[in-house]
Design a protein that fits this description.
The complex is a heterodimer of chains A (108) and B (120). Chain A is mainly beta and 108 residues long. Chain A has strands at residues 4-7, 10-13, 19-25, 34-39, 46-50, 54-55, 63-68, 71-76, 86-91, 98-99, 103-107. In chain A, strand 5 and strand 6 form a beta hairpin. In chain A, 35% of the residues are buried. Helices cover 0% and strands 50% of the residues of chain B. The chains are: A mainly beta (108), B mainly beta (120). At the A-B interface, strand 4, strand 5 and strand 10 of A face strand 5 and strand 10 of B.
Chain lengths: 108, 120
């Protein structure tokens, strides 16, 4: 199975700053089948990005995704208070679908 | 609007089984697979598998093969997941989620989660 490794584990930033989250795959992810989710405490995950770079419906344009092959990035251009949460990457090109371990973005 | 509403929290003893329901509304149930994902306390997300609600075809993560069963009732737009031979390591929040496109894509709508606690 494809193992996804997210880094850093925790990102401490202030509102207004730029956040860069990394997701590395143990083997190439087919056809950029990579998604990003946001999860807040006590809530279900929310789909942010699919196809590595396409924003899901209703997602603010400060969220952007990039990458191909084994290296992917989620960028939040300017952090808003509601963006402090845990972010997971997921590959869906190969079964079993797998998630990364998550990156927590916390307020500095 | 699309909604997935799951059944309530469950407490089971080790060795027992649990069956969780996921009622879908706001879209054509049989056009999109339902995925099941779990999250142990304080841990990350783990994909368990999916069922294509149209033809009932299932795909299980090998970790859960033989111990988890997905079914659906198309007349009621409900998906079910049953987990057998529970251990304390199965204590988790279990989510159902709708496939974004058809089957084998990310999940765009999620249920609220069902907490399953396994304890004697």
């Amino acid at each position: 199975e494809i193992v996804l490794t997210q880094s850093p584990g925790t990102l401490s930033l202030s509102p207004g700053e730029r956040a860069t989250l990394s997701c590395r795959a143990s083997q190439s992810v087919s056809t950029t089948s990579l998604a990003w989710y946001q999860q807040k405490p006590g809530q279900a995950p929310r789909l942010l990005i699919y196809g590595a770079s396409y924003r899901a419906t209703g997602v603010a344009d400060r969220f952007s995704g990039s990458g191909v092959g084994t290296q992917f990035t989620l960028t939040i251009s300017r952090l808003e208070p509601e963006d402090f949460a845990v972010y997971y990457c997921q590959q869906y090109g190969d079964s079993p679908l797998t998630f990364g371990g998550g990156t927590k973005v916390e307020i500095k | 609007q699309v909604q997935l509403v799951q059944s309530g929290a469950e407490l089971r003893q080790p060795g027992a089984s649990v069956k969780i329901s996921c009622k879908a509304s706001g879209y054509t149930f049989t056009k999109y697979a339902i995925h099941w994902v779990r999250q142990a306390p304080g841990q990350g997300l783990e994909w368990m598998g999916r069922i294509h609600t149209g033809d009932g075809n299932t795909r299980y993560s090998q970790k859960f093969q033989g111990r988890v069963t997905f079914t659906r009732d198309t007349s009621a737009s409900i998906a079910y997941m049953e987990v057998s031979t529970l251990t304390s390591e199965d204590t988790a929040v279990y989510y159902c989620a709708k496939d974004f496109y058809s089957s084998g894509y990310p999940c765009d709508y999620w249920g609220q989660g069902t907490l399953v606690t396994v304890s004697s």
